Amino acid sequence: MLNVCMIGHGMMGIWHSEALQRTPDAVLHTVVGRAKPASAETTPAAGRAQSSTETFAEKYGYKKWTTDLDEALADPEVDIVIIAGPSETHAEMALKSINAGKHTLVEIPIAMNLEGAEAVVAAAKEKGVALGVVHPMRYRTDRHDMVRRVKAGEEKIHSVQGRFFIHRLQNVGATGLQRSWTDNILWHHTTHLVDIGLWTVSGGDMSTAEDRIRNVYAAYPAIEPRTGIPMELVVVIETHDDQTILTNGSYYAHNRIYDVLHVTDRDDYYVDELTSLMTTSEGERPIPTEQENAELIAPEFVEAVRDGREPFVPGWSVLPTMRVLHRVQEQWDAKHGKQLIPGRTVT
Predict the structure, then answer these.
(1) Staple 149 to which of 77, 86, 110, 155, CB 3.0 to 4.6 Å?
(2) What count of Cα atoms within 13 Å lies in the side-chain half-sphere of residue 280?
(3) Which three-class secondary structure state does DSSP give residue 304?
(4) Residue 142 — left, alpha, or beta (φ > 0 → left; ψ -120 to 50 → alpha)?
(5) So where are the chain's domains?
(6) How far does CA 72 lie from the centroid of its chain?
(7) Contacts (Cβ under 8 Å, ≥6 apart) of 308
(8) Phi and psi at residue 184, in whole multiples of 5°?
(9) Distance in angstroms (rounded) separating the CA atoms of residues 300 and 98
């Protein structure tokens, strides 16, 4: 049996906990919450009361709860740590967890900059612990047959187009609660879309992903004064095989959109993450919901640790995506000046 420590109990903390409750080899051991939550965080955006760490532990059956991360990591009973806190804390918490000798699963993004991502991957290699990253789109089994055919040379992807549109002029998360931290359209939501593009055109072999890239272009505007962050982003990746990966996102949108289209020489594959539907030439069919798909991840990581194998999304495999984001950030820095953006420190 493997004892799991969950850091954070927002939406992903809930989804991972519910999945691990059904995982025979996992024990929900410790949940770590915020020591002093800001008053804004305890004010529900839709009239709902936010659960305390203690209440969360009782609800999901954790043996212990704490607001002291170092205390949790020092516990020799803890085998696996899942980091599901604010994006800007992922790298720092992952390094602490790895240095404590814990197998570590990090929510997307692994870090808010390339340097942080590389540091986490290097630390896990040095310590000899398993490092996985939560990239839910790779887990969609509905795409796996296509990816296998791409790898075998039986199908070629012409283009991948992904979109993420949401209205985020107010800093409210998926739980409906006001947050103390600010999201980032490049280092969070675009990470999903760039990664699924690189992963699929590479036939699932991310060790070849960077060698495939010919050019990266971006349209990334200046900071929005009301929010302190850039609010929209378009990224185009060109491969040496004349394939294109296009990602388009906006925090201004009034209609929520989250979808990915693959156009190949065999068919089109359109996945709508919000309606849980896949459309191909054969028509429309239901697929697992976002939550059902995400709930595959933590149990698979537990199994990987148990079996002594690499997890399905190992840490090293997300570095090609992080390097694309780094190139986009460098283009933005050159145009607007390198500066502190909420959630992302200047390195």
Answers:
(1) 155
(2) 12
(3) helix
(4) alpha
(5) 2-136+295-315, 137-288+321-336
(6) 23
(7) none
(8) -140, 120
(9) 19
Tokens of 340: 């502190």
CA distance 231 to 221: 7
- Tell me how crowded residue 168 is: count the other CB atoms within 10 A of its CB: 19
Task: Give the pLDDT confidence score for residue 180 in this predicted structure.
Answer: 56
> Is the pLDDT confidence value at 43 over 60?
no
Residues 6+ apart with CB under 8 A from 1: 25, 26, 27
Phi-psi region of 308 (alpha: psi -120 to 50; beta: other; left: phi over 0): left
Residues in Cβ contact with 82 at an 8 Å cutoff, skipping those fewer than 6 apart: 4, 5, 6, 7, 13, 16, 104, 105, 107, 298, 301
CATH code for the structural domain at 137-288+321-336: 3.30.360.10
Interatomic CA distance for residues 210 and 192, integer angstroms: 16
Please report where in the chains the tokens 């980091």 appear, as a residue.
83
Strand-by-strand arrangement of the 283-286 sheet: 213-219, 232-239, 244-250, 157-167, 252-264, 268-272, 277-280, 283-286
Q: How confident is the model at residue 42 (pLDDT cuts 50, 70, 90)?
A: very low
Three-state secondary-structure class, residue 41:
helix
Q: What is the dihedral of CA 101, 104, 106, 111, to 10 degrees?
A: 30
Q: How far apart are CA 338 and CA 148, in angstroms?
A: 41
Nearest to 232 by CA among 135, 323, 166, 136: 166
Assign residue 36 a region: left if phi > 0, alpha if psi is -120 to 50, beta otherwise? Answer: beta
Contacts for 131 with CB less than 8 Å, ≥ 6 apart: 94, 98, 103, 104, 105, 106, 120, 121, 124, 311, 314, 315, 316
Asked if domains 2-136+295-315 and 137-288+321-336 share a fold, the reply is no
Contact 121, 316 (CB under 8 A): yes
Confidence class for position 226, pLDDT limits 50, 70, 90: confident
The CATH H-level superfamily of 2-136+295-315 is: NAD(P)-binding Rossmann-like Domain (3.40.50.720)
Q: pLDDT class for 48, splitting at 50, 70, 90?
A: very low
CA distance 84 to 32: 10
pLDDT at 215: 98
